[in-house]
Amino acid sequence: MKTLYFDCFSGISGDMVIGALIDAGADPNLLVDELKKLQIEDEYELKWKKVIKNGITSTKFDVLLLNKSIHIQSHDHNHDQSHDHNHDHNHDYNHDHNHAHGHSHDHEHNHDHSHSHNHDHDHHHHHDHRAYKDIVELIEGAGLDETVKETALKIFKRIGEAEGHIHGIPLEKVHFHEVGAVDSIIDIIGAAILIHQLEIDAIKSSPIPVGTGRIHIDHGIYPVPAPATLEILKGVPIDQSDIRAELTTPTGAAIVAVLAEEYCSIPSLKVTSIGYGAGTKTFKNHPNVLRVIIGEQ
C-alpha cells in the first residue's frame, strides 16, 4: 500500500503542501495543465523553485496574482508576523506561467540563478470576490478527474463551514475575497491533483503544531491559532509549539484535516521518496519546511 506521511514539524500551509509534493516527485507540468481546466489561468502565475531553508534543500511554491500590484498573500499567508531576516543563498529554477509583477515579502535575501518559462493566456473574467457556491460550481464544471474533484470539494467545504461557523452565516453565504480565493483554489485543487497523480493509497500525518503568539487578521488581533484554523482542526491533534508565529494556516489545516486518516509518528515504511516544501517564513534555528515521506507499507 502506497502511503504518504505529512511530517508537519513546522506546521502546514497550502503552498508548503504543493512544494513538498513537487519535491517528492510529483509533476508540476501536469499540475499546470490540469489547472487550466478551471479557465482562470489569466488570474494567476505559478512559480516553483529550489531554495535552501536552514541548510535543507526544498521546493518553494508560489501563486502570484496577475494584473494586480501585490503578491498573493491571502488568508493562507497574511498572518505572517515573523521578523527573522536570515540570508538564504538559493540556486533557483523558476517555472513561470503567465507574466506578472509580483513582489515577495518574506525577508529572505535570495541570490537567484533562474530559468523561466512563460505562457500567456487571453481569457478575461475577473470577479471582485467569489462565493463558496461559485467555487463549487467552478470545480464541478472543470472536467477534473472525479477523485480530484471530490477531494477538492471536501477541503473547500471544510474551510467554508469553519468560516460560516465563526461568522455566524450559512455555508451558502460564505464569500472569499478574490485574492484569497484564487490562492486557495490553486493550493487545494493542486494538492488533490498531485496526490492523485502520485497514486497514494493512504495518508497519515503527525500531530499539527500551530505555533504561538498573536496575529493580525481582518477582525483584529487574535491568539494563534487563528479562529478559522482552530475551527478547521476540530478532531485533529494539535500542539502549541514554542515558535512565535502562525505555523499552520487555514488552507493547510483543511488539506490535512480532510486527507489524513490517522495522526501518528512516522509509520513503518519502505521509503521510496521524500519531499520538502518551503514555507514563506524563515526562522533562525528551525527549518521552516513541510516534509512529505512516501513509501510502501
UniProtKB/TrEMBL annotation:
Protein's UniProt keywords contain Cytoplasm: no
Stretch list, region Disordered: 75-130
Keyword terms of this UniProt record: Nickel
A Pfam family that the UniProt record links to this protein: Ni_insertion
UniProt keyword annotation of Signal present: no
Biased composition, class Basic and acidic residues, residue ranges: 75-121
Name of the molecule in the record: LarC family nickel insertion protein
Species in which this protein is naturally found: Neobacillus bataviensis LMG 21833
